[in-house]
Design brief:
heterodimer; A: Aldehyde Oxidoreductase, domain 3; Aldehyde Oxidoreductase, domain 4; 35 strands; B: alpha+beta; Ubiquitin-like (UB roll); DNA polymerase, domain 1; 2 domains; 5-stranded mixed β-sheet
Chain lengths: 789, 157
């Protein structure tokens, strides 16, 4: 293997410590001390003495033809080392996660505001920015297509006149944003009676705005040209190997010459699944022969990654008078924006799980993903399930009201359980405690009503002193959700782990090497915990994440503890097998109860205790294992039937809110969450995931939205795109259930996404309960509550 | 221009600072102190919170020249050699660190809060830390860490 010319300051080192904690313990993170010291290096912290800074020139127009690009003035600015356009991309000009349709740099046409057009490398970031501003691009500006339904030629409802809106010539003409048309995917689910009727019917239309991942660590990395003509890329990302594949394609280099190492990642939440600065930094480094660092500022970050798909959804629920669901019909439109990204898989989730964790005999779902000239949308925590949960849970509340039934009772009466069939014909073959999650929430005490002296800090509006309680109404809402874990629909979803055991300083020490991205969730801790449990040693080192070991798959879909955890467990078992065989050879006979514990090979029956240090001597035992979960299968294109998902995660929330009905201000008073995690591998980290997921769901319900006008982003900053602060987040109650999934390592279930799905709909339900308003759009804004919108 | 200031008790002198650079840029790119973080560079997230003459500020909003001759304290200056400061230890113990990008700013802000108030109430903590965004934790374990640190530092009201 070739090595880089030099190693940058901030290149990741092996993580060691803290030295204790197996599966089921709240072991401390091996990177925690580095992080509190300010010594943990993120992608934007990487540094080399002679590095250059790369910046991106982006399109100001959502849809335009690029007539000409003149880079001469930029290239002449002192301090500038390279100015590149699409002509300088040596390999494939387009890339993408599922479909290669997105230009590395604009070729002829730009399809969204912010599309990269040109690159500059200079010796100071401000010089590079000034040079980028000197690049002259002539555009022929076109009118953008900004509505998913219009892009597909589907009639849209004109709410004002309650009629089908006119489909314009423009939208019909523009069914060619891409050569194959504007439909990215249409998923159908058909089961039961195609023409069902019911005693009680509720119909609703719902809308979810575009949410941003808003990870705090910007897109960033450092590309270092290597002696062999290749490049070393240190980058903050979610899946090194899928990046490597796309970079190789763009650079026309083989994988041996494009080596990736994970730099410190400041949060991800789906927003780092797609490439951002990866290819750009490599192009600049290879052109200049110098290391090139790129680090977006916050405004650029809003244009530099995909967002959560906005959705419009029309639902019809039919039920018996006593509250038994008879049918659900749904039409769901996801706005995928200018490029496909992971829209096909988002449509897969939105469609297959679009009616929620309920048993319904007759289901008819159409789920569409469309190209428009809005910002590209792709992965974000909850991935297609967040949007539909707002719709199906709002429908359950509407149905409960229509029936005069308690909303929790209605949900429990129709809840999935083990043995239930999903609308896609899959029998749930592990615990599905949907009703129990809700009943446990119901049993939790409610927060006290405000009484006595008013503390402004507990009021909607806080110390802005907007109310002392007058006009404030309290509401309580419930929601439950489910989400697939890991990759679905027949994808060959696997991970690779290399585990090495040797004696270091007299102590048996395991080293775990995977390419699985640690993005803050604590996977590095889990890797250590599994190795400690499986190998009976305390010292476990985590090797830097890089492409010198096989793919671990994506850090997404709540899958890494399951899949990479499974791979680490399997590699440890292989190492253990070797050690036990070696011990038996030493003893000279088979010993059935041999195991590893406390740094020794032990047999209780035969009172054997051989220290691993003696057994290994100066040798190392190393095993590399590729591990897969049981296979899923593609679904039928006409009916959606099939074993699509390997595992489901379930969570439920209860939200309590106070609403100032005069000003439309919302104060979330308390969030309570119940979640089945199968096995809490690290209880402290599990609760941390639930807290964080709850916050992101709350954010979408009441404040977070990328506002788009005519295809342009209005609020690309933390001044105008609001995420919850510590004042916006209420105290949380969390109850974790552990009903083992017999198919999964340790019985665990993926944790990260489910709480992000059920929290927002519970907040929306609570606001409806407080105000009596039929709210059908998130985020809820003050004007929706005061009738002034 | 040349910039001279004291950072974490050590005198620093750097040359060729461009007048448009922020204190954050100079700390990170010229002084080898990348602990203060660049999450928004517009004064909204608090990730770059440092002490300037004893007051917490967003280093991204301070022009480098404004730090001339002054005392700067960053996350790198909190620990006493190998021993973490109780605020740092509390963040580790409470599970208040996930991705950790907000952590340096929160540590400085929490250090300032406990130094000023001893044992802040939750409502005081929420007001004091409202300028520090965290995207991972939902803040519950950050509140745990503040309480734990205040307990260990033995402050009282």
């Amino acid at each position: 293997m070739s090595t880089p010319t030099r190693t940058p300051t901030g290149a990741p080192a092996h993580l060691t410590g803290p030295g204790s904690g197996g599966v089921g313990d709240s072991a401390q993170r091996p990177d925690g001390v580095l992080k509190v010291r300010g010594e943990f290096a993120y992608g934007s912290d990487l540094w080399m003495e002679d590095m250059l800074w790369g910046v991106t020139l982006r399109s100001p127009h959502p849809y335009a033809r690029v007539v000409a690009i003149d880079t001469s003035a930029a290239a002449q600015l002192p301090g500038v080392h390279a100015v590149l356009t699409s002509e300088d991309v040596p390999g494939e000009k387009v890339y993408g996660l599922e479909l290669a349709d997105q230009p590395v740099l604009a070729v002829d046409v730009v399809r969204y505001q912010g599309e990269p057009v040109a690159l500059v490398a200079a010796d100071h970031p401000d010089t590079a920015r000034r040079a980028a501003a000197l690049i002259r691009v002539d555009y022929e500006v076109w009118e953008p297509v900004t509505d998913a339904r219009t892009a597909l030629g589907h009639p849209t409802t004109d709410a004002l006149h309650e009629s089908d809106a006119e489909v314009t010539e423009l939208s019909r003409e523009s069914a060619h944003l891409h050569p194959e048309g504007n439909l990215v995917r249409h998923l159908k689910v058909r089961t039961g009676d195609p023409q069902p009727t019911a005693e009680v019917v509720v119909v609703g239309e719902y809308e979810v705005g575009m949410q941003d991942q808003a990870f705090l660590g910007p897109e960033s990395g450092l590309a270092v040209p290597a002696d062999d003509g290749g490049v070393e890329l240190y980058v903050a990302t979610q899946w090194l190997h899928v990046d490597q594949r796309q970079i190789c394609s763009a650079l026309a280099l083989p994988p041996e010459q494009v080596r990736l190492t994970l730099a410190g990642v400041g949060g991800a939440f789906g927003g780092r699944e797609d490439l951002s600065m990866h290819v750009h930094a490599c192009l600049l480094a290879l052109r200049t022969g110098r290391p090139v660092k790129m680090s977006y500022n916050r405004e650029e970050s809003f244009f530099g990654h995909v967002h959560r798909h906005p959705a419009t959804m029309r639902y019809e629920h039919g039920a018996t008078r006593d509250g038994q669901l008879v049918y659900v019909k749904a039409a769901i439109w996801f706005d995928g924006g200018a490029y496909a990204s992971s829209t096909p898989a988002v449509v897969g989730n939105g469609g297959t799980m679009g009616i929620g964790p309920y048993v319904v005999p007759n289901v008819h779902v159409d789920c569409y993903g469309a190209y428009t000239n809005n910002p590209p949308c792709g992965a974000m925590r909850g991935f297609g399930s967040v949007q539909t949960a707002f719709a199906y849970e709002s429908q359950m509340d509407a149905l409960a009201a229509e029936l005069g039934m308690d909303p929790v009772e209605l949900r429990c009466r129709n809840a999935m359980e083990q043995g239930s069939a999903t609308p896609t014909g899959q029998v749930i073959d592990s615990p599905a405690p949907v009703a129990e999650l809700l009943r446990r929430l119901e049993a939790m005490p409610l927060p006290a009503e405000a009484d006595g002296e008013v503390d402004l800090r507990h009021m909607p509006g806080g110390v802005s002193n907007t109310t002392h309680g007058e006009g404030v109404r309290r509401g309580v809402g419930y929601a439950v959700a489910y989400k697939n874990v890991a990759f679905s629909e027949g994808y060959d979803d696997h991970s690779t782990a290399r585990v090495r055991l040797e004696v270091v300083g007299g102590e048996p020490t395991a080293t775990v090497h995977t390419a699985a991205a640690e993005v803050g969730q604590g996977l590095v801790t889990v890797e250590q915990q599994i190795a400690r449990t499986e190998l009976g040693v305390e010292q476990v080192t985590v090797h830097p994440k890089d492409t010198t070991v096989g793919s671990a798959g994506s850090t997404s879909a709540s899958r890494q503890t399951y899949v990479t955890g499974g791979a680490v467990k399997a590699a440890c078992e292989a190492v253990r097998g070797q050690l036990l065989a070696r011990a038996e050879r030493l003893v000279g006979r088979p010993v059935p109860d041999l195991r590893l514990a406390g740094g020794q090979v032990v047999s209780d029956a035969e009172e054997i205790a051989v220290p691993l240090a003696d057994l290994l001597g100066g040798e190392a035992v190393e095993e590399t294992v590729q591990w897969r979960h049981r296979p899923t299968e593609a679904i039928d294109p006409e009916t959606g039937q099939g074993f699509a998902h390997v595992q489901y995660a379930f969570s439920a929330h209860r939200a309590v809110v106070d609403v100032d009905t005069e000003l439309g201000l919302v104060k979330v008073v308390e969030m309570a969450c119940t979640q089945d995690v199968g096995k809490a591998v690290n209880p402290q980290a599990v609760v941390g995931q639930i807290h964080g997921g709850t916050a992101q769901g709350l954010g979408l319900a009441v404040m977070e939205e990328i506002l788009i006008r005519d295809g342009k982003v209005v609020n690309p900053s933390f001044t105008d795109y609001l995420i919850p602060t510590i004042l916006d987040m209420p105290p949380m109650r969390v109850e974790v259930l552990e009903y083992a999934d017999p198919h999964a390592p340790y019985g665990l279930r993926g944790v990260g996404e489910a709480p992000n799905i059920s929290s927002g709909p519970a907040v929306l339900a609570a606001i409806r309960a407080a105000t009596g308003l039929p709210l059908a759009r998130v985020p809820v804004r003050p004007e929706h509550l005061t009738g002034t919108s | 221009m040349r910039l001279t200031c004291t950072v974490n008790g050590t005198e620093q002198e750097v040359d060729d600072v461009w007048e448009g650079e922020s204190l954050l840029y100079v700390l990170r790119e010229r002084m080898g102190l990348p602990g203060s973080k660049n999450a928004c560079e517009q004064g909204e997230c608090g990730s770059c919170t440092v002490y300037l003459d004893g007051l917490p500020v967003c280093a991204c909003l301070v022009a480098a020249g404004q730090a001339e001759g002054r005392q700067v304290g960053t996350v790198e200056g909190l620990a006493d050699a190998d021993a973490l400061h109780p605020v740092q230890q509390a963040f580790v113990d409470a599970g208040a660190v996930q991705c950790g990008f907000c952590t340096p700013g929160l540590l400085v802000a929490t250090h300032d809060l406990i130094t000023r108030t001893g044992r802040p109430s939750d409502a005081e903590t929420r007001e004091a830390l409202a300028g520090n965004l965290c995207r991972c934790t939902g803040y519950e374990k950050i509140l745990d860490a503040v309480r734990l640190a205040a307990d260990r530092m033995g402050g009282d009201r």
